[in-house]
User: What shape does this take?
Amino acid sequence: MQISVIPIDSNNHELSSHGTYDFPIAIYNDQLDKNLIGFVNLHWHEEIQFSYVTKGSVEFIVNQKSYHLNEGQGIFINSECLHMAKPISRPDSTFICINIHPRFLSSHAGSIIENKYTKPLISENSLPVILLLGNTEYEKDVLNKLLFLINIFNKKEENYELEVLIVTLQIFNILYSKFYVTSQNNIKDKTVTQERLKNILSYIHLNYNKKIRLSDISNFANISAGECCRLFRNNKLQSPIEYLITFRLNKSIELLESTTLSISDISEKVGFGSVSYFIEKFRKQIGCTPLEYRKVYLHKHNN
Assistant: This one.
């Protein structure tokens, strides 16, 4: 399954459901040039995530740090960490994303598995990512198990749910033993920087349909405009205004697909100052005009 744009709420919380309540694990194939905006937008979710690069090179940005992964390498992203992904070396860079809700690992709420193993690891603030580059035996072991897990999930043979659970627990056990047990001397609180960034993004998402200047964003966060830009740059994001424009374009796509509003009405609703500016930015980012996009979308979904 390919996701074109990840839906998020005002706090960057992903709105997609991964798997089902009784089997909360999902696996996606993400070819970045098929994403409408060319990359996976910034978001977070309760699920832990494994990503395995199958083609090209991908830059994963988690909290404030950037990680470059090549074909055959992977990354573990912990629960509730802000993250995004961009292509590096080629337009068809592709990775497989495995999202696993913590309750899938915990047997049941309040179990010893949850309290002793799952909760401590996913709440470990000093462990936002684990790189799986294939340089060590344990990394090779995890990567091989991820490929095995993907194969089991895709084939969906009679007892695949049991096998998926078994392999997932094996992977989790390796990571817990290797990292959580040895990280207790390095526990850190969530950084003020990450909380500040989340608040700024929430402000943008709640006010995108209004006129917003850089000074409005920086004043909201009680920091200078320069510090606000550095905050975004240090988190490998677009500038605050570029991020705002991208978010508005995502919202315009939702309206183009789900309503019959005119292009001028959509432009006004998502906060662009003029129709011509909206069309210019849309064409530059998406590769066509809003009207052309709507025609292609309607043709595709009405046939």
